[in-house]
Amino acid sequence: MKLIIATIKPFKLEEVREALTEAGVRGMMVTEIKGFGSQSGHTEIYRGAEYAVNFVPKIKLEIVVAASMADSVVETITKTAQTGKIGDGKIFVLDVQQAIRVRTGETNEDAL
Question: What is the pLDDT of residues 58-71, one digit of tens each?
């Protein structure tokens, strides 16, 4: 099993969710986060005063899938979330040693 952690732009969430559902993903965790990378934030003007926005709003997706699905899920996220502009996000893929469904006690891929 693989854990896929992806950060994407907030306005891409629904489009990515729909694409992942079509690709066979049955569940994901979504968190609103703030961060920075190459963008390093930016400045904005509010009521005539300029201020620095050091952290940019993002969405973090956490998806656990069978190892055989990982490459297609990463490809789906990449294609769907990409705008071609700075700040499109990042994707990390990690190994998962064990998964347990609390309600039924099912383990590993049966728990997904």
Answer: 999 999 999 999 99
Number of domains in the chain: 1
What distance, in Å, lies between the first and last C-alpha atoms of the chain?
A: 9
**Residue 18 belongs to what domain range?**
2-111
d(CA 53, CA 58): 13
pTM for the full predicted model: 0.86
Instruction: Note the residue count of the chain.
Output: 112
Which tokens sit at 38? Answer: 């190459």
Residue 7, Cβ neighbours under 10 Å: how many? 20
The 3-class SS string of the chain reads CEEEEEEECHHHHHHHHHHHHHCCCCCCEEEEEEECCCCCCEEEEECCEEEEECCEEEEEEEEEECHHHHHHHHHHHHHHHCCCCCCCCEEEEEECCCCECCCCCCEHHHHC
Residue that is written with structure tokens 């993002």 in the block: 58
Q: CATH number, domain at 98?
A: 3.30.70.120
